[in-house]
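Structure ticket #2291
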Amino acid sequence: MTRAGAQTVFEAPAPAFSCPEAEAIARQAFDIEATARLLVSERDQNFQLCANDGSEWVLKIANPAENPALLDMQTQALLHIADADPSLTIPRVKATPDGALFHEIDSDDGRRFIVRVLSYLPGQLLDDAKPRPALLRDVGATAARLARALRGFEHPESRHELVWNLTQAPALRTRTHHIQEPDCRRVVEEVFDHFDAEVLPELKKQRSQVIHNDVSELNTLVDGDRVVGVIDFGDLIHAPLICDLAVPIAELIREHPEPIDTAAEITAGYHAITALADEELGLIFDLASTRCAMEVTIASWRVGDHPENTQYILGSIRETSAQLVWMREFGAESMTAALRRACGQN
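Resolution: structure written out below.
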């Protein structure tokens, strides 16, 4: 929760440390002698550390408006997953020499920042890969394995307010005025209204737990037709399990010539690890549509606060808007039928 009058992580300026400053933090707080390289990030600041001993790390400087308890949840979730399924390739937490899982620093402007170090995972971003059927299935399987490893994980902050929580999507209805294109704004509002009236009541009946909530093109690392890593646990949330599947489906059908087949492959991969109920399959189309509406709304809202980051924030909004219109015109029946066939439910 944010204190009354305080800035949120979407409003507060991101950290702006230099590479030499990051190197000094790594050396003094984590005993890592390394060369730092700035990585792309939206609300935090991340540096790749290439250590003198050949190891590679990511130095993560959190947004000063971030709730420390949420950062603790992310760290504890990483530790939990590593224990529950050591074969999953996720970032490993590096403690300071005295065993602390984070370090605090103050900037010249008086703001305080929490710093963590995680292992660096190599691999090609899914965003840069050609999503063949085998890879699509492994994306679904990886999302399911992550959720299975998180099963039973609890944290006091797991039900916090999160703008990317699908169950809270109707709250974004108040932000749609930021969407400049009238027809797109109308479609987005129709999606939110339908979700609120028809989808959310059914969604609340489904099994829930803490989920990664962002197995996306920019958070999934691949090698050929295999997923070799998942990063960024910043959107962890306790939510219906099926919401975890909406993210990769919404993203990967965006520019694919066969969107229904794409959704079916991802779903089949997930179902092979964790069987999906018929009621869950029936919600996927609407969840993916709503995720698209959220992306358009949040990007349109965010770019006004951070015009300096326009390219990053609006990177795919045009394609997402077009996909949303297509999905609204296409309807749910054909996709839902294909998903059921992919899971052996005729």
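Closing remark: The first strand starts at residue 34 and ends at 39.
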